[in-house]
Protein 1
Amino acid sequence: MLDLSPFPADFLWGAATSAYQIEGSPLADGAGPSIWHEFAHTPGRTRDGDTGDIACDHYHRYREDVALMGALNLNAYRFSISWSRVLPEGCGRVNTLGLDFYQRLVDMLLEQGIQPMVTLYHWDLPALLDHRGGWLNPDSAGWFADYARILFRALDDRVKLWVTLNEPWVVVDGGYLQGVLAPGQRNVFAAPYASHHLLRAHAAAVQAYRAEGHHQIGLVVNLEPKYPATETLADFAATMRADAYWNRQYLDPVFLGAYPPELAEIFGAAWPSFPAADLDKIRQPLDFLGINYYSRQVVQHDPGDWPLKASRVRQPRQTHTGLDWEVYPQGLTDILEWVTRRYGPLPLYITENGAAFYDPPHVEGTAADPLRQHYLRDHLRAALEARRKGVDLRGYFAWSLLDNFEWAYGYSQRFGLVHVNYATQQRTIKTSGQFYADVIRSHGATLESGTED
Ligand code: FCB
């Protein structure tokens, strides 16, 4: 029979989470602390002093959560491994109890017909490695490859999709330049080294995978298309700087073997020269690229901004999320096409996409979130549009399965398809989650027949 479904039968329909944001019990069963544990427990670092100590208690409730994935019709789930559960000191001694948790989770997912996509690093560096310099220590690439190898050996018989790093841009911009995320440093002279060592770590893990892995490995970056606010040369140049910093800083070295030239201008005296041999090694062939997309940026020249001299022009007529991120579905199509043109063609996944909105209180067991539902619908349509324009898009992961710990914003921002009552840990599927389940059941057909409100 001719299949006229908008998305192919093997398209991955998933949701994404990360370890520190949902698991809770960060020190259970012999786990070591991570930089997020220390950061959140430092007064003044997170909103209302929120921590991941309990979060969604997924460490104990993962069975219930996998069942929820089944209720949402998901055929894929992207989660991350807590490095310091597996290696409490970051290297050396393996904590089998920590590793066992992920073994059980993977087994349960496979029993439900849900394909795991495993992220090795979603921001929670073991604290003891940070005390030795963290990503500023050149040895970090080796630490990461050793950790990755342990996971490959434990799970590669069942996990077919591996991600080295989640969003190196955020790791460095938030953690080493602006200081708003763990480990909270603000050092423009250090930031380029953190980026470089993250890229070396990524490459070292890919090489380790090629030596003993059997499936696919890739990288996840957050991309945000940049559009000039006016046609002036100054705004155009500012847009190019913003694009180099956000979008090309990691992808150019990985796919083209060179940093974008704008970085030397942006960092000035703080921009080092890196060995050519490192860049050769960083350029490892990847099986896929994961893209996290949330918003776009309209950019203007702004001498007062540091270090880019470029800032966002808010678009007052557009809808904005709880984090004041502009809702701009067209940007998803644009960025997927841009990646394919500049670096591809290559297999792509949307590894995160979603929105924080204030969710009105429940009425009799239902959780209505029309704004999130519209966001989801319009971005799925934008993804479909990209496929129709020839982008090799293989899957979509909504951020997030559950409301969770949104880093420095604590629990104040809810992104879930499933509402979490943090007092009782009760989960309730939101109407956006029900909508997504219907989209998945129809292979996307309901997207084309949906209402146009
Ligand atoms: C991304 C992160 C993810 C979550 C979303 C909202 O940058 O990867 O953990 O915080 O933003």
Protein 2
Amino acid sequence: MLSLSDVRVAYGAIQAVQGISLDVGERELVALIGANGAGKTTTLRTISGLFRPRSGTISYEGQDLTTLPPHAIVGLGIAQAPEGRQIFGSLSVRENLDLGAIRRRDKDRAALGADLERVFDLFPVLKERLGQAGGTLSGGEQQMLAIGRALMARPRLLLLDEPSLGLAPLMVGRIFEVIARLKAEGTTILLVEQNARTALEIADRAYVLETGRITLSGPAQELAANPAVERAYLGG
Ligand code: ATP
């Protein structure tokens, strides 16, 4: 479904992503794990069209993404829930969710209403806080809102950037339950995580990114059992 081939991204002289290739198949949950600064966020933002790669190709269902603006990429069915949540703090929960649907082609009220209900079903707390300003939600609630907003675009491919960042263990469990459920319902997911243990538990396959390069890849269970991964990322 998604394929990156030898993608390089640089910020001036800093080579953040140094020629990575990866694939995500339809209905797969693929994890991209790695330490701080490995280039995970840069990779997701490049797929979303927020950065242009210096070289390499990114294709989605056979279409080249590297020349498309971000809104066109959302229009193709790719949505990202960004790291650090980046919801609109002064807008209400409802307004944030509505913005997620802004690029949708089917704008009929029934479809939007059904998708809102789906978000409320996944995250009931959002329904209770519809009128509350996004910036006054707790960290976990903001994360839920960021994922809910991405879901309002009805993505076929969901890009999740460190959804567990800064959350209490109970909340991490809750968010990962929802990710597993989205996968079960047919959404294809590329999940960036520093919490490698939990990511490898729910992913089908994973890639390990180290200073801009993929150093290991394979079925998630195999990677979880790999001594090098265990030492570096699982605290083994
Ligand atoms: P983390 O888990 O800490 O968020 P990451 O794996 O997502 O890390 P990136 O945010 O992609 O890593 O950063 C990769 C590298 O690119 C880092 O060395 C970072 O300092 C650098 N970088 C990221 N954004 C910029 C920028 N706007 N200008 C210059 N350098 C940047």
Protein 3
Amino acid sequence: MNIPKEVLEIADGIRSMKIRGAGRIARSAANALKIASEMYTGNTLNEYIEYIKTIADVLLNTRPTAVSLPNAINFVISRLMRKIDYISDVEEARNIVEGAASEFIVRSKEALKLIGVIGAKRIRDEDVILTHCNSSAALSVIMKAYEEGKNIKVFATETRPKFQGIITVKILASKGIDVTLIPDSAVRLIMKKVDKVIVGADAVAANGAVVNKIGTSQIALAAHEARVRVFVAAETYKFSPATVTGELIIIEERKPSEVVSTAFLEEHPKIRVRNPAFDVTPADYIDAIITEKGVIPPQAAILILKEEYGWVISDYLLRISSSEEGETTK
Ligand code: RI2
């Protein structure tokens, strides 16, 4: 099957982290489906469906942790599959896919804005905020609070090994916000000066645990010790329906060469280097999750999941029980 070069470039961009951040990954994946659909040259409906599903698989296999990626793809593909019995030609199928992809992108951007408006209400004048990595959702909250005239200070971690903290400090400084870059290892020391921690999320599990950039759980622990509130800013498409049925979120392990140079690795073949990209912060260490649907305690994640993904969860459960039935009748 011929996959357009533009789509392969997006998939490579996600894999290599040129395109990164859970929200941006999701929007890029939706956009890739749209581009693929627009570039389809055949005219058989079945072939088109196979083609779109292949593109979806290529995108799904780029990075494993951010649940925004499968949720974005599912948003588009499920709209096509729900109408499949009533679609008569490729043109109709294309309109559904391209329309759904555009709708996802628009909704995603709106969610980001709303999170800013809702989250900014939790920021007080003179607050000192600590953030980690580079999260557009967390930045939406911080920047909105600043726009509202609140005099805030921000500490941002470097976020080894990929240094996404540099992106964060550049963005905040360009808006005129008082921002200080700190090494990841300085978090516990700096926490004494901090009023609130605000981070993003790559995935939220049914039990309210948050998967975010490696180091987030240590920050939450230091905040807990210092009695500093921890807020997670996350769109509802970062909530994982699969976790309701017992699936675990896969923690991506990236190349050791992101941590030390290839020359170092070649020189010291006996030294093992690990590079887990994410960690899990249990619900007990999170005060609230700021979503576009409102601020919720992490323990209420299951309610968001049931409201937003009720049918996806029922579908999973149906598949599990029918495969179990198959097993027992064998
Ligand atoms: P937004 C990023 O992952 C960070 O972990 C960040 O907190 C999270 O995605 C959410 O980002 P990576 O792609 O969607 O840098 O809030 O590995 O921008």
